Structure prediction request, 223 residues.
Amino acid sequence: MIEPLLKAEHLFKSFHKNDTKLEILKDVSMEINRNESICIMGSSGAGKSTLLQILGTLDTADQGELKFEGQSLQNLNDEELSLFRAEKLGFIFQFHHLLNEFNVLENVLMPFWIRGLDPDITYAKALLEQVGLSNRIDHFPTQLSGGECQRVALARALVKKPALILADEPTGNLDSQNGSLIQQLLFDLQKESSAALVVVTHDENMARRFSKKMKLVDGHWAR
Ligand SMILES: Nc1ncnc2c1ncn2[C@@H]1O[C@H](COP(=O)(O)OP(=O)(O)O)[C@@H](O)[C@H]1O
Ligand SMILES: [Mg+2]
Prediction:
C-alpha cells in the first residue's frame, strides 16, 4: 500500500483566552496524497490557519498525530522539524513575507542559502520567468506591487521542489486579476512538480478547481 504523503489523525487544538477555553479543532483527520489538490474552506475563525500551521509543523496540536510518508513526525526535535520543513514543504501566506533588503532573485534563492546548499540559479530564473518577472530579478520587494511580490513568494516556495505546498489565503490581499493569475500559476506549478497542494481560501471560484474540497465547521469537517 502506498502511504499518503501527509496524514493527520485525530487533531485537537484549543487556545485559552482569559478563563475560557476555545476549542478550535475537535478531532480533525485528513489525508493528503501526491498530485492531489485540496481546498480548505470555512468561515473566519473556523480554525483554517490553525490547521494549516499544524499540518506544516509550525504549530503543534494538543492531541493527535502527523505522519509524513508513513513516518510519525511526533518525535522529531525542533532542528529536525525545521530541516523537514525546509526539504519537503513550501509555504505561501496571505502576506508575501519577502525580505526587503534582498532583491527578487536573492529572495527566491533564500531557501538554498538557509540550508547551506548550492543555489539552483537556473531553476530560480526559470520560475521567475514563469511567473512573469524575469525582467525584475534585480529589483527589490519595495519596488514591486503586491501581486508581483506574491508571484516572487510563489517562486520562492516552489524553488526547492517541495513535496507539499501549503497556502493560506494566497490571493486574500490581491485584486481579482492578480488573484486569478496567482491561482493559475499555483495550479500550473503544482502539476509540473507533482506536488500535493493544500490551499485555504474564501474564494468560491478558486475552490472549484481542486480535486477535493473540505470545510471546517465548529471544529469538524462539514459533511
Ligand atoms: N495563538 C492564539 N491564541 C489565542 N487564540 C487564537 C490563537 N490563534 C488563533 N486563535 C483563535 O482561534 C480561532 C481560529 O483561528 P484561525 O485558525 O486563525 O481561524 P481562520 O484561519 O479559520 O480564520 C480564532 O477564534 C482565533 O482568535
Ligand atoms: Mg486564517
In short: The radius of gyration is 17 Å. The CA atoms of residues 99 and 107 lie 7 Å apart. Strands lie at 6-17, 20-32, 37-41, 63-68, 71-72, 89-92, 164-168, 196-200, 212-217, 220-221. The mean pLDDT is 94.
